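Reopening this one. Same input as before:
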Amino acid sequence: MSEIRSKEIAIIIPVFNEESVLLTFHEQLIQVVDPLPNKTRIYYVDDGSVDQTPNLLADLQMQDERVRVLTLSRNFGHQAALTCGLDHALGDLIITMDGDGQNPPELIPEMINLYTAGYDIVIAQRLEDDFLPWFKRFTSNLFYKVINAIGNLDIPPHAADFRLLTRPVVEALKSMPEFHRFLRGMISWAGFNSVVLPYQPRKRLGGKSKYTLKKMTKLAEDAIFSFSLVPLKIGLVIGGLFYLLALLEAIYVLSFWITGNQIKLEPGWSSLMFMLLIVGGTLTTVVSLIGIYIGHIFQDVKRRPIYLLKQKSDQDQ
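Same output, byte for byte:
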């Protein structure tokens, strides 16, 4: 028990335009943090908020010495904000969670208990969320099935970014410099000892989700093209099928010449155009897939930072 008391805990919370829920969330969080015997720091990462969130964070920092504020120069996205928090957080145990109230802070002591049982990663897994629209539930289930199948990963379904990581795991993530971040996949790829902690999600404390369809699609794209070459292999499979169709077509045409019925062959303008359109579409798709991979490579080789830090707290410097 004395060993776990000596462990310092860092809690990382990315926020973007959360003025309506921030104070309520912080109150709920400190009700869980206060009884902990560990030294705790709370890192709020302001991902370019344009409402009153920065002012509220400044007030929290003045009122609570445990609060640290990291302010990004603009909105870089959820994965970049988490990366910023991981880069700057001090402590032996690092917990990442959302600040909208859907991740219950009450799970933090359970996460710590699982760490003491020998796990380096504790992944909080949402149970079926009836509050979510059916389309989001369907696409989420489909995404995890696809990425696990083609990316050789083992990401638990409905496991978002509410988790506990030990310091060695965080250092491993910091050693991965890729520009297109999919932390769930990176953590799975790292291969540390992990356990799943199911929980029932809550309703948001207020406001609307910032994860729009566009952002979810971007995250799925980063995940697939960062962890799998299967899209490129699809082009090879389709190309092979067309070679097979071409062989069958050649055999079919030769059968008319062999039997002396070549007069029955009629000009196949429509079928020719059909094949040209299919082949052209296939080539365009394959070239586009290659282009996406090249685009990712291009953005990586530029070595631009994943985020730009505008301001951070004076503490711990």
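So the earlier flakiness isn't reproducible anymore. For the record, The beta strands are 9-15, 40-46, 67-72, 93-96, 121-126, 159-166, 194-199, 309-312.
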